[in-house]
Amino acid sequence: MTTPLQLVITDAGRAALVDAEGGGSAAVVIAEAGLTASVFVAAPTLTALPGEFKRIDAIAGTAADPDTVHLIVRDSSDDEYVARGLGFYLADGTLFAVFSQGDPFLGKYPASHFLTAFDLKFLDGEADLIAFGDTNFLNPPATESEKGVAYLATIAEALAGAVADKIITPATMAAVLASYVAADQLGVANGVATLGPDGKLLVSQRPPIDLIDVFPAASEAAMLALAATVGDFAVRTDNGLVYVLQAAPATVLANWLEISTPAPVSSVNGKVGTVVLTAADVGAVPTTRTVSGGGLVTGGGSLAGNITLTVPKASPVDVATGTDDAKAVTPLAMAAALGGKVPSARSVTGGGLVTGGGDFTADRTLTVLPSSTAEILAGLAGDKAVTPAALGGLAKSLTPNGYATLPNGMIIQWIAYRAVILYEIAIPISWPIVFPNAALVGSATAWLEAPSIYRNLQPQIVSADRYGCQVMLQLHFDRDIRVDGFDLIMIGH
Fold it and tell me: Rounded to whole angstroms, how far apart are CA atoms 223 and 250?
């Protein structure tokens, strides 16, 4: 449902309305509508519409009831705009009522026309004091005394009968009346039966009940002479047949339907009278016949009484032992005996570093060969695993002047040189061990026994080879020339 626009009647508009009610020369006439894109406070003290950008004189209206005015504003121009407020002007230019909100309530494009309807509520009787100019396009809400626009009721609303402001069309009325029965069709022939106070069909509307009679008849002529009604039976004693009357009159043979009945038993297995049958008469097995067991089946006996045949079943232990040939193995015992076992044809094989294996007809061994320290250093074996013991065999000396050999053959050597140095000097250094191939890269850093921001002898590596190097200590500036040693590290192979 559309939210109503809350218009505020200005003080000037209210004064004009009171003057017309108090005996003025004519009722007030709403002649124009003004539009604005501005948001403003709709106060009764306003005398002009703030930010007004358009005035429309195509406005029509009428009093829909004593306190409601229905009016329509039309704009057929090519203008484009949005409006957030509007005002209605009387014929003398008085601002009669205003409205404003934050969001646009109206938008128009150049190719469109708009036709907007408003319903204004006043005090009872004031609606008749307002008049309009051109009314040729007015669509007021329809009432019992006013032509106008109204909603159409649905079938559900018409059946409920609770909506007072919608119109029922002939088609809807026909659909509604289709659910009802005309009063002149109640309780009459070819009409609709009605119920009494007890909730049952009235006795006057029930057909009479004709009881079914059964008549004996000695012959066809006697049957056709019966005072029978539809549904009665005739039992013929001359032929043993039974007939039912399907249609009146009973004097017509074609109206009687013969009812088939099974013929009586005249003999049993070719015998009449008191019949006693033997097994041979009906091809039955004599009770002296016997049933015996064989193989795993035990028990049996004659057919003179109930007999039992038994096949003993083996237990899971019997199945696992495999020595009892007088019992049958069940799936349950077989599953229990084979539980946790695998067929001997299944095999286990090695992959990657694992070798060995085979099927389960014998014990199998899976092997992973360990590599030696020499193989780790060579780095060529691809079918052996590195063990902690082999890694522990790599040459190393974890001392202040020591070394460590890596699995790829790289060697890291380090030296902690400790001596007070007070001037620039080149110090020869020998590695703890000789690099087998070459010394690659190294680094030297000064060592101070105590923190200092002034000591500045800086060590540099000079001419490093497989056997050693020289460390050159160089002065950067002339202040507190001293270091307490240096640390040296070299990587080679």
Answer: 8
The DSSP code for 260 is: P
Cβ–Cβ under 8 Å, residues 468 and 428: yes
The model's pTM is 0.33
CA distances (Å), origin 152, targets 137, 144, 157, 162, 260: 21, 15, 10, 14, 66
Distance CA 256, CA 350 (A): 97
Residue type, 54: K
Other C-beta atoms closer than 10 Å to the C-beta of 314 total 20
Judged by phi (left if over 0) then psi (alpha if -120 to 50, else beta), residue 397 lies in beta
State how beta strands 366-368 and 396-397 pair.
unpaired
CB 471 within 8 A of CB 446: no
| pLDDT tops 70 at residue 293 | yes
Block residue for tokens 């096949």: 311
pLDDT tens profile 420-476: 998 889 999 999 999 999 999 999 999 988 888 777 788 999 989 999 999 998 887
What would the pLDDT profile of 421-432 be if each residue is shown by its tens digit? 988 899 999 999
